[in-house]
Every structure is written in structure tokens, then in C-alpha cells.
Give the backbone structure.
Amino acid sequence: MPRRKRSIARAGAVAAVGLLVATAATACGDGDGDTSGGPLTEQKLSWKSCPAPSTLQGAGTGKPAPMPDGTAWECSTMQVPLDWSKPDGERMDLALIRAKAKDQDKRLGSLVYNFGGPGGSGVSTLPLAAQEDYEKLHSRYDLVSFDPRGVGESEGVRCLDDRAMDAAYAVDGTPDDAAEEKQSLEVTSKSAEGCEKTAGKVIPHVDTESAARDMDLMRQVLGDRKLNYFGISYGTELGAVYAHLFPRNVGRAVFDAVVDPTHDPEQSSLGQAKGFQLALDNFLKDCAADGASCPAGPDPKQGSQKIGDLLKQLDTKPLPTKDGRDLTQTHALNGIAQALYSQDFWGYLKQGLSEAQQLGTGNLLMALSDSMTGRDQQGQYSNIQSANTAIACADSQQRYTTADIKAKLPEFRKASPVFGDFLAWGLQQCTDWPVDGGTESLDVSAKGSAPIVVVGNTGDPATPYEGARRMAQGLGKGVGIEVTNKGEGHGAYGNGTCVTDAVDRYLLDGTVPKSGTVCTR
């Protein structure tokens, strides 16, 4: 959502919210071959019992619980070059996690996951997501994930301390006058300065191409001839860059909740404005079925206006919460957006809106906002937002000024009366960033690659459905296999038997779905 070019995976977001409530890259493909990692390709990983996730990874979940079949999680670190243009130079450690395949006799190899963000910790997310979604795949695959460079325990970028993060999120994300515009830009500049001070040697090298090269080294160190891969949200962009660089090293791969490879940051944010508005409208239609008990009212056409009125009130009169913070307009927008990532959260959104209207407090909406921003119940932030900024700015050349954003506001407001302003001002994310970013276009052509199943969800708010078709086309004929799911939420796998079965058949049996398949359940 706002201040984020792309969004974290549904699986990780679902897990995080459940806990809270309960209590453009570029790559020049070399066509084939291995990453030139030199001696690093011969390194041996030392797997040990996993500790609880660190604060940077999103602490608060405790040590990862075993898989339902009893398989324990193991953790390790892998060395990679800090700068892939100097593979024999300084190195950095990547944090890895795995659960070994249940049926070792029928083991297919490793299945590597990236859950998106950019900035999401795979080490903390995979054990949570796997409990419900990946037990069948675990029968024949070692389930593997990692913290990409700059994320979590892989030299995690940290721009501001916890108190400064709280202060930053208290600043109006939709400035209404020159003073608020200045304050918003000062927060962006202060964050950039903090990143340079604490992670100056790392931030030039957290780009997606470098992460893709890390994955090819990982493939070799894990002992796999091909990379079997499951990418979600930003993970689809990472996977596409990998496929472009190393098409002949692609094994069985799936992209779910697909980033549009043709979009620059402005187009991506505008697409999200339309996507979140569509998801909100769908929520309001569902809520209206409750009649008078719906906090947005029984008329879905007026519901968006009622939410807009609430947000306008919060702009000048925030609501109190039990932890002493005030629910601002910015917090509420983040909370509403987070609830739209999955239809499973719609009930929480209804409760949160009702609480705000009837009790005049903002506890549940604040909990949803905290999940979006990576803040735990002790007031500690993971590094997801810092890493998100660092990776997005490493991948893109664009640096938007206040004048640029003001010129774009009418188009964003037309796309979404609720989220438009917020997403437009979020384009400031890379303003004043201390290092230059990549080039303007993302080449995902992957001639010679094995088929890649590309799944688009029609109600996806964060990576709108149209991006899946463009990704499939960009990968090339016979490579991009498009599957459409008619459903709600960010990501389709695990949300219906049709898509889930099609993906499982491909990953487990090698049965490629027919391109153009449409799922309705």
C-alpha cells in the first residue's frame, strides 16, 4: 500500500493479522549457465534448529512450529557477494530456512519461496504459511525460503528507530497544505538519511537482479539442477528477473499475485489505486447484504462516501486507542487497505469500522495498520518498510517531486476517491534517496525456460489482475501459462480448489495447465 511500490504476500499478511487481532528492476540475460559465484558455489550449509524470528524479521511468533506431519524447521546462512560485479570481493550472509520433504524416496528437490514485499522475511513467513497451504507440496519438496539481501537477518536495512517510525506514521500521508507537504517530505528525507547512515554499503546492492543471482547460487548450494520456485506478489517480479537471466535453469515455477512488468512506479501505484478501490467496492457490496448492521450502510454506492467521511474526520480529529496512540487518517487508510488483502479479513474491517463509529475508538483499525507497517504489540518494527523502500529505490530511476505528485492527483482521485491521494503521495518514497536506481524497463523475456504458471486473481487489490496477462505475454510463448481465478484477495493459491489443484499438479506431477484456464472456485 502507500509508500510501497509493491505489496507483501497474502500468506504472510494473513498470518500477521491473525496474530495481531487475536491478541522496476532490470536485467540483461545471459541466456544460460550458472551464477559466477566462484568458490561460493562449493560452500556447505550448516543446518540447525531455528530460533524465534528476530525483531527485524517480525518477532512475536515464537520458534517456528513443526509441519503438521512433525517435520522440524531448520535454519542456516549462505554467503553471497555483496556486489555481484565483484564476486570475489566482500561477502554478506543470507538467512535461509527449510523443512525437508516428508517422502525422501520421492523427493523432487527444493521448492524455493519468495512471499513478496519487497521486504518480507521468508524465514519468518514460510513456517506460518506452510501450516495450512503447503502440506501437500511438502510431501515431495524441501520447502525453502530466505530473507533476501537487505531484509530481516540478511543485512537487514534499518532507516529509523521505533520511536521515529511511530512519529513518521503519525504524519499526514495526504498533506492538505504547504506545511503538511513540507512535513511529509521531511519524513522521507530523514528516512533516506537514516538508511545511508546505517546501511550505506548495502543499499546500492539490494536490487532485484542481485537477489535473482543470489537465488541461482542458492540453487547450486542446495544441490538442485533446476530452480523450482513459488513467487508471490513482488516474488513474481523476482522470479521473472531470474527466468530472464537464467532461463535454462528454471524448473517448475509458479507466479501468484503477479506484478505487472510493464508498469513504472507511477503506473503501479495508479493500478493499486484502482485495485484497492475495486476491492473496497466488493467489500461494500458484501457488507450491504447485512442490511442496517453494515457499518458502511445498506447501500454500497454510498458506502465508499461514508468511509471517506470517516477518513476526513480522522484527518482533524484522530480516535484514541488503548495503547495511547491516536488512530489518524493515515493509520486508518493502512488498516482498511490491509483488510482488503484477503476476504478472510472483511469481518475485521466491519468490526473496526463499527468500533470507530459506535465507540469512538480505533483499536482494531490500528491493529490492522500495525500489521501493514510491521509493528508488533511491543512497539517494535520489523524492517519490512525500510527494506521495501531500499529495494524499490534500487530498482527504479524515478524520483518524484512534490510538483510531480500534485500534477498527478486528479488522475489518482478519479481512480480511487478513498485511496487515490494516499497512493499518489506515496510516490515520494524514493525522493532524496542517496543512491541511483536501475533503468526504466523490466525485461522478463525468458526464451528457453520451462513453462511458468502465472496466476491472476480478478479481485486482487495490490497486484491487479491485468498484470498477470502482461507477465505471461512478456515471458514468451510457451513459457508464460496464464491461469485466471475469479475471486477476492491478494493471491489465489489456497483460496479455491481449482487454482490450488492446478498448481499442485504442475509442481508435483509436471502437468502444465492449459493456458487461458479460468477458475471460479
User: Anything to note?
Assistant: The chain has a mean pLDDT of 92. DSSP finds 17 helices and twelve strands in the chain. Residues 265-288 form the longest helix (24 residues).
